[in-house]
Design goal:
alpha+beta, Alpha-Beta Plaits, two-stranded antiparallel ribbon
Length: about 375
Amino acid sequence: MNSLKAISINISIPLFISLLFSLMLFYDEKIPKFIFSLVPYLFYAISTLILWVSWHFNRNRFIFIILPLIFMHIGFEYLSAPKATSLFLYSSLLYPLHLIIFLLLKERGLFSIWGILKIVFFISEMSVVLYLVYFPSEIINSYLNIKMFAFNFYPLKDMALAVGVFVLFVLSSLVLFNRYLIYNSTFLVITLVFYTGLYFIKLPHVNELSLLTIGVIVFALLIRESYRLAFYDELTSLPGRRALVEDMAKLGMKYCLVMVDIDFFKKFNDTYGHDTGDEVLKMVAGKLAQVSGGGKAYRYGGEEFVLLFPSKIIDDAYQHTDILRDTIAKTPFSVRNKKSQKNIYINISAGVVQNTSKDKDPFAVMKRADNALYKAKEAGRNKVIKG
């Protein structure tokens, strides 16, 4: 289960954006009218930017998320009232399900076989909606307009409300238990904004503002995702070497640095396979990420990790590192094969050093920490040595 702190951090940005735009509706009388007249153009501008950046960085999920919103806005703006009403109904039913589908589908390139299947699915989805808008089916509409609840959320239909409850339940579960918090939390807020916009659609500027809000949230997610890919390790979700270099440049006059290595990891890989080795890396990374004392964990490469302790003396850094070593050593790791399952125990070794006036830069401190790590290996492993 994800920690409350991690959930709060990841959901705060899209939630803040949505609250910021909602304030515009509460104080619309104090906002110049020409600002609201710019909202549709801002929505198209941010959507175009999302499409371009998504194409450039090969993040096609964002393309399939923003295109339906563009078509919806055009439809609500230019279709006749009966057709726009039909589009409203189908959008309230299908777009939240559309969000979940493209949230769960992996990024595989737009013109790979999987990407082409996504395109075919998307075109088919849009074609069905367009056909039903222009050639409505009484049988389908009778099912979609069925009464399911005692309360009323007009203009939303009961079926749309039922779909919304299901989608929000799934997204909430993913936020609690799935590791991809950056996506799950954002899609949860997008769904809430989408339904809020539809519910209050008869109020002035609500539709345009809700779509613009979603566009800004999606763009913020795209930027955050680009940052994550650049600075975070995909396997362990820890900050990577580039993030370490950036953070070392910000260190003050006093800090400690720890080099950490998994004992006998190559032998473990040769015995149990690289897939199991990857699981060990994730387990160790998860424990290191829980470092206390103001420390921060990074994946340096392979089975090596780094802990940074800004403004700490070596005794404090040693104590917190040794607690991690002991925790990892006492944590059973389950290894399964076709015939049996057994628990094994993973050990780490670490070298801890504090910067001195003789160190030219943090890389010199890292070199000393690496030497201390080597001494921990020579001393029998499963040890923390002060440099």
